[in-house]
Amino acid sequence: MLFSSCIFLFLFLPAIFAVYFLVPAKFRETRNNVLLLASLGFYAWGEPVFVFVMLLSIFINYICGFIAVKHKRIGVVLASVAGLGMLIYYKYMMLLVSSANSVFGLNLPVPEIVLPIGISFFTFQGLSYVIDVARGDAPVQKNPLHVALYVALFPQLIAGPIVRYQTVADEICNRHENITEAAEGARRFMLGLAKKMLISNAMGQMADKVFALTSSELTWDIAWVGAFAYTMQIYFDFSGYSDMAIGLGKIFGFHFLENFNYPYISRSITEFWRRWHISLSTWFRDYVYIPLGGNRCSKPRWLFNILAVWMLTGIWHGAAWNFLLWGLYFGIILMIEKLFLGKIIERLPSFIQWLYAFVLVMIGWVIFRSESLSQIVWYIKVMFTPSAGLHRLTYYFLNQYGVEMIAACICSVPVVKWFRKKEEQYCGLLTIGENIWAMSVFALSVIWLISSSFNPFIYFRF
Question: Among this protein's residues, is 255 annotated catalytic?
């Protein structure tokens, strides 16, 4: 089920709110069970058979949590083998078999395997639970329904943010819903929906048209327009979903950590990855990079650790070589920045620092978006091969999507954050204005939703 669907907004959400809040707050377990059943129904709406895959993952991690209390390494290893084994089967088996056929000249049948939505996210959350228990960062959960609720909680189930168990362990039993936070959460949800419907979808229409062009049709100006469009599409798509997830969590009394912090104002790639998909970056840092030795080792091993983590980060996003290349691309840039380039960049004017980071990020998104290695090569080549005149699509996009492009630029910088710092000066008028603004863009989003076709989130396929 999509957050950006009429069924979710006007059927599922009102129903779950009504049932959940009709249960008195003192009956916490009943509220939890209502939320768990709703979450399973939410996931089963599109793919009922894969509910059993998720339930199997939950059961394995629940058992491994008990094992990890007394035998830390055994519990973590069992959870990792089982969880990553399912992930590899569903997500990477087709790529592995087809690659083996190509490299070794085999003729193995390539299996047709349907990818369960959100498997990367709920696999990592399950592993987070077992590892946190093994490390003593969180107590083992004796109630299997609580583990199930943590993994299956519908606001963040399909596309994150990746919620660490220690973040919500106490709130599963001891959270306190209130009208103030519910209102804040609702406002956050409405603004997140507007990011998706009013900006991301418009940017996506541009990007799809540009990336569908052949090498003979593409010119340098439209290549940059397409790169910019996808850069904005993926940010507003994914950060919009995260906003909606965080907002819904707040309504139910959960406090998920922020997943984005205005990444496009970054002045280095190192800073960008502190601001982009924070839950994934910190997951790999705490559960892979640091256990490998982090930077407390020899320089060659340190560089290997960085490269290994970024190869995994790339391939986590999908079973295709462009994702692996994307991970290597950022891993190499980060290594160079940490070795010497970072100190040079710091001495440059702020605008040059920003331009350096933003251009490299756009190139990275071209690698991420491209459907083949050959497309990556000729697309980037065209970007840096200026030609006379402007492509007709450039004029068309500027005329058709100019407002959305300006809105994307404005909303990708912390303008609202700056205004919030002035809230005391305006005696609460900002909150009133933000409420009116949220309701206005929500109404526009619904109008757009009713008149548009299927619009899934980009990260659903990861």
Answer: no
